Amino acid sequence: MLKVGIFGVGHLGKFHINNWQKIKGAKLVGFYDPDDTAAAEVSKQYGLKRFDNQDELVAACDAVDIIAPTTFHFDLCEKAIRNSRHVFVEKPLADTMEEAHKIVKLAKEAGIKVQVGHVERFNPAYLALSGYQLAPMFIEVHRLSQFNPRGTEVSVILDLMIHDIDIVLSIVKSGVKHISASGVAVMTDTPDIANVRIEFNNGCVANLTSSRISMKKMRKMRLFQKDAYIGIDFLEKKTEIIKLKEDSDRDAFTFDIETPSGKKEIAIANPPVPDANAILLELEAFVKAVTGNNPTPVSEVDGLMAMDVAHQILQKIQSANYVVK
Which alpha helices (H) appear in 83-232, and where do they start and end? Predict the structure, then answer.
């Protein structure tokens, strides 16, 4: 039985608690949170033990789940890793690139498992494409959210766009050639809306837009590749594939179009989207990686790569907004 300790029982922390209680092979031993009000509520609602000391919680468990604000990620990860505890840490991996590199180094030296909470990797709409060959040459992404003071200790790049950066990097699997970006701080001291263009060494181009000051929510990704268009709606949990018809597309809706090279038959398919809980899936995957001694599906290196691109974007925005007085 994997004994798990939780650091941070705020809004997202409660979702994690609910899901940990559903996972066979894992047991919550308690939590640490300096907020007395939140801690009292969780202790009463879930009957979980509150640890007043971080070291005591680390000593009592085999793995930690870190859902504290980003500024605390490094200290908590370091404490757990130095005590040979496995780590699940919410995205982004750390507050700075220096901290992220140190976490990767510490994890390698300790031989423990680290998983970063890029939960969109487990979104049912994305999982519906698990059997489909993705090789996009153009990607368009929109992630829009209404303003919420929670999470604004970091920019919209590290708060929202990093989800899509991680997904794009996992799909494209090519080095980044060039990044151009623009962003504006509206409600906070860091960019609240940003538009980014990432050019990859293999020729793929990704355009990403993220905003946390929109009137409506949107989480959509469109992939364009040879003979196919793939649409993913992470919010509505829908997936659509439009492509040239193949023999295997017998159940798809089809229609003909005229092209300069002649008539072509187009197939439209909506792959079945599993009825799945993304947070539960990512925590279950972490437990399986630890107990089976397998690689985590979103490793600390994945988290580092997403952070690296995110920080390059922030540097581009800062350079573009710099004005000589």
Answer: 97-110, 124-127, 156, 162-172
